[in-house]
Write a structure and sequence with these properties.
Keywords: Transcription, Transcription regulation. InterPro entries: Homeodomain-like_sf, HTH_AraC, RmlC-like_jellyroll, RmlC_Cupin_sf. It comes from Streptomyces spinosisporus. Strands 1, 2, 3, 4, 5, 6, 7 and 8 form an eight-stranded antiparallel sheet that branches. With about 240 residues, the chain is of the alpha+beta class. It folds into two domains: about 130 residues, Regulatory protein AraC (Jelly Rolls, Sandwich); about 110 residues, Arc Repressor Mutant, subunit A. The protein contains ten helices and eight strands.
Length: about 240
């Protein structure tokens, strides 16, 4: 499905591939993760992923997903970010993407091109909203992030993880900032939010999601989720139910 719409089951994966043109992927219902060598971006139903030409990437879908794939011609790609990104979906952008991927022929010449230009304008004017989880190159840091990927709820401190990875807490803290551009706490929070989005999309309650992803209580989870995603987990789930069809 290089372009168009279709329903995909929970957990469906698209193996690593690349495109000559740019690609927007939007989950009208559900959520998706896009992974490149630079890390993973997650897009819940209020965001859209952008992958420029030439970037090898893979996708994973969470919940039963109404996925919309939209090709962006090379000539328009320069209007958008030169790297994989996630953007907020305005009401106008949502309707443009839905119309462009419904595969209904237009009676008016050039209508599709004009609508695509509107979509690109909306993306160009909107700030990036990347739920981006970068991945390290340093072997010591990768040993730590691998442990957390295997068990995001793991309550270990950075010092404890460092002992398992053979590196000091100070060294690892420096590497998180220099390689990944964020603190250990921030990186683990975003990792947990990625997993929380998958659980919420698949119908798990807010309280059970908080426990499953390592928060000590639902209120701290709600605060973290709201700060990163821009809405409460309850509202996010409510919008998923409202958008399902």
């Amino acid at each position: 499905m290089p372009q168009g719409a279709g329903w995909l089951p929970h957990g469906f994966r698209l193996d690593p591939h690349s495109h000559v043109q740019g690609q927007l992927v939007y989950a009208a219902v559900g959520a998706l993760a896009t992974t490149t060598e630079r890390g993973t971006w997650v897009a819940p139903a209020n965001r859209v992923t952008w992958t420029p030409p030439g970037f090898t990437h893979s996708h994973r879908f969470y919940g039963r997903t109404d996925v919309r794939l939209l090709t962006v011609p090379v000539g328009l790609c320069g209007e958008l970010a030169p790297h994989p990104s996630v953007f907020a979906v305005s009401p106008l952008l949502r309707e443009a993407i839905l119309a462009l991927t419904d595969d209904r022929p237009s009676a008016r010449p050039g209508a599709r091109e004009r609508l695509l230009a509107v979509a690109v304008d909306e993306l160009s004017d909107g700030p990036e909203q990347s739920l981006h989880l970068p991945e390290p190159d340093d072997d010591r840091l990768r040993a730590v992030t691998d442990l957390l990927h295997a068990d995001p709820a793991r309550p270990a401190t950075l010092a404890e993880l460092g002992r398992a990875a053979g590196a000091s807490e100070r060294t690892l803290s420096r590497l998180f900032h220099s390689e990944l551009g964020m603190s250990f706490h921030r990186w683990r929070t975003i990792l947990r939010i990625h997993h929380a989005l998958a659980h919420l999309t698949n119908g798990l309650s807010v309280t059970d999601t908080a426990v499953e992803c390592g928060w000590s209580n639902p209120s701290s989870f709600i605060d973290a989720f709201t700060e990163v995603v821009g809405q409460t987990p309850g509202r996010y789930q409510g919008e998923l139910r409202g958008g399902a069809r």
